[in-house]
Write a structure and sequence with these properties.
Bound molecules: zinc ion
Strand order of the largest sheet: 1-6-7-5
Shape: globular
Strand content: 15-25%
Largest sheet: 4 strands, antiparallel
Number of strands: 10
Radius of gyration: 20 Å
CATH topology of the largest domain: N-terminal domain of MutM-like DNA repair proteins
Order of helices and strands: HEEEEEEEEHHHHHEE
Helix content: 25-40%
Number of domains: 2
Length: 275
Amino acid sequence: MPELPDLEVLRDNLTLRIVGRTIRGVEVYRTGLVRTGPDSIAVEGRTFSQIGRRGKHLIFSFHGGPHLIVHLMRWGWLWHGPASYPPSRATILRLALDDGFDLRLIEPGGQPLAAAWVVPDPATAEPLRKLGVEPLSDAFTWDAFRALLAGRRRPLKKVLTDQHLIAGIGNAYADEVLFAAKLSPVRYAHTLTEGEQERLWQAIPEALRWAIAEIKKRVGDGLFDKEVRDFLYVHGRAGNPCRVCGTPVGEILFDDQRTDFCPRCQGVNQPMRGA
Ligand SMILES: [Zn+2]
């Protein structure tokens, strides 16, 4: 599933391609994709003004409104290419642009998860209203972060991936952040010392910015249809030697989600049971 760093690069690279372009046609191929009403997106004749992001949602804005919010969920991705290219069966939304190109939302696989909303104001829109703080924004202050952790009797992995607390971090980058902060994913948030809290607070934006730069190095201004993750330290590397200390990267399951960590660098010395 794309997370904040993937979406930031996608947002930048799509901006180059579609901002300033006008929509000439809209086709919604999947019933239920649009959560705000009928299976239609009334943006014909509208011109893209910008692409924003909030948490794991991309926000496509048009001059004079409205805003199209897209959540790619697990399998969704965005395709930009010549309109003459026939849409595949996995295409669930097609926006035809005035330059002969299409922007398409593709979701392969059987499970329909991707979602779209058409809203007059993203600030009050249903999927965004309840999101937590943006970790790359000025609002992610030391005080805000301490308040967020205070008394929270939950494992750090759960705190970091809770979109209502901090928006945009998922399974992969929670692992990377915790590795960078040298903290165990199973530590309970309320047990952190002030020094550990500060380390975590600093590691969150640092790890995310580092990832954005690494992804950009690899894709340039190109689009990509699956996450670029070969540079990660621990996530997806279970059993491989830690890039820092050589200890095999460990793995546990948290609610069916893989959590990868270095037992040595992150001080996880208790044997843990997987699911
Ligand atoms: Zn290590």
